[in-house]
Amino acid sequence: SKFPNALFLATEAGTKFLEVNQLTDDKGEPIILKSWKEFVEAVKLVCTTEHDFKTIVIDVVDNAYEMCARHILAENGWKSESEGEWGAGHSMVRREFKRVIDALLASGLGVVFITHTKQMEREDRGVKRMFIDSSLPSGGRGYVNGASDFIFYCFRDSKGARLMRTKANENFQGGDRSGLLPEIMPLDYELMIKYLTGELVREKQDEQNQTKKG
């Protein structure tokens, strides 16, 4: 919600306790996008009309992918994505989802994907481990992860502090293409920006210089 001029494309009622910008209906009530057609129209709106928003937040992207899947199944009269020649449903859903999100990413707007997490078992050199990643289906998960410059896993520690993990390891998905963030840090937007802009480093250098002078 603190990203620059953020507009939420909400696919579930999860923003009522936050002060956020959101699409509204004629009565001024927040719109919850419930179909793929509605989601596509919302993306088209933000990509083709003039506005002051700089960031689009999809909350949550899992629902958007599910709506896309339902749309493809309905169009083809299928009950499962595995239907169609050689399981064509899976690839058709991925292509349609990618088509729309690609347009959003190409708009010049910043894009934030909010997703839930899922535990899964992975095997590495014969060793099985539990791994936490996005709860998106594999087709959507691979695309969104690959398109993202940052992948944060947000959690609370034993004392209730809100933290986020910014790097991947053998148990968690993560990503920081800047290489400037610590592996674990407070869930704090302003602090994140200080790391990314180098402001925090400059502040520490100034403190050290002041100490030396003292």
Question: In a few lines, what is going on in this structure?
Answer:
The chain has 214 residues and is an alpha/beta fold. Helix content is 38%, strand content 22%.
Quaternary structure of the protein: single chain
Q: Total number of helical segments? A: 6
The helical percent reads 25-40%
Main sheet characteristics: 4 strands, parallel
Please tell me about this protein's structure:
The protein contains six helices and eleven strands. It is an alpha/beta fold and 214 residues long. It is globular and about 75 Å long.
Name a few traits of the molecule.
alpha/beta, four-stranded parallel β-sheet, 38% helix
How are the secondary structure elements laid out?
Blueprint (H helix, E strand, L loop, with lengths): L5 E5 L10 E2 L13 H13 L6 E5 L1 H16 L11 H18 L4 E5 L2 E8 L2 E8 L3 H10 L2 E2 L1 E4 L5 E4 L9 E2 L7 E3 L2 H9 L1 H15 L1
Parallel strand pairs: 1-2, 1-3, 3-4
Antiparallel strand pairs: 5-6, 7-10, 8-9, 9-11
Helix pairs in contact: 1-3, 2-3
